[in-house]
Structures are given as C-alpha cells and as structure tokens.
# Entry
Amino acid sequence: MKLSLLVAGLAALAGTLPAVRRADRPMLFSVAAAEAEGRSFPREAPPTRVRPSFSTPKMGTVERKCVSTSGLSPSPTSTMRAGDFVAWGQLNSFVSGQQSKVGWGTLHDPAEGGYSLVIRAARIGNTSDTVRYTRSDYGYSANGLPKVDAFYPTRLQLTRPGVWILVATSGPDWGCLIVNVTNGGDITPLDAGPRLERLDQRATPAKRPPR
# Structure
C-alpha cells in the first residue's frame, strides 16, 4: 500500500514539473509560434553581476523575440543579442550540410546553474527539416582572460538551404535567431579566420534531463 502511494505521489509530482525544463519541447516552425513560447517561458531574476559578454551593446534585442542575422557580416566574430542569449560566430554564413561555429552566451552562468543548452532548429515551410542539438558542457574564451564568462561553443549543421528558426534554451534563458542557409558560393569557408573558441573546462554531466 505504501509503495503504491509513493509511486502515485511521484507520478503526480512529475506531472507538475514545468514543461519548459524538459529537452523534448516541440519544434517551432514560425516566428509567431516561437515568440509565443518566449512570452510564456518562465523567467528568473537576472544575475546581480553582469556577465562580460552582456556588458556592451549588441545588434538584436533584449526582448524575447526572434531576430534575423541577415544584416550581420559573414565574419566569424559577428555578434547578436537574442533575448536572454548573446550569440557570435558564423551567424550569417551557414552553408547547407556544413558545420558552422557559433558561441552561445547565456544571461545566467551555465557554470553555476548546471544547465544544458538545447537548440531546436526548423526550416520555415517544411516540417520535415529539423535539427535538435543538446550540449551540457561549456567553455571559456581562449584569449587568456580570467575564466569568468562561461559559454557554450557549438558546431551547428543545418541540412538544407532556406530560412531557419533557431530557438535556444538553457535553464531559465530563452532566445531565437532567424538564419539564412545557402548552397555555398562565395561564403567564407568554415576553417577561415581566427579560431573561435577552445574548451578549457567541462561541466560535470548533469544528473537531470537538460533544462
């Protein structure tokens, strides 16, 4: 009897866990759907210390809206503010089938919260073209500065040319980018330019599902 009550209690508790903390959130195929999720995504108070990657103005918006990277340079150091994220790297030089380096800084430090990065990418106009990317380890800049601004270094590969929505979440942080993926041409190759990042430290693997 006690065991059955315990199982029932655990099941009820699981049903009350906020869905936003789970990595299996659905794909979003429109700006309207993405921004609706952004409005309902639970927030936490901003940290008392402003993280270095958030200390200077960036293109984009602090609001939880989808921002287009089309106005950015294809330089591997381009930077964009997207809600609770700052993203930088090859934001405007995605080539279908090739990896692009993108760094993701979060409003809340992943080194302190035990969070994981989840990126849901979907091509607008085709529900069969999706990519789900999860990363639980983080890194620091390789420029020799103190390790005070952890971020997620990623290599994203989007499968087909077109316009894609990238919705990023990490713990209480939410952001959305709209990127254009091309067939190639005169786009900067992946290995051109300076190295974007180096992993200096890995987080202890999360004992709970990515949030």
User: Anything to note?
Assistant: Confidence is low (pLDDT under 50) at residues 1-21, 185-209. The helical segments are 2-16, 31-40, 110-113.
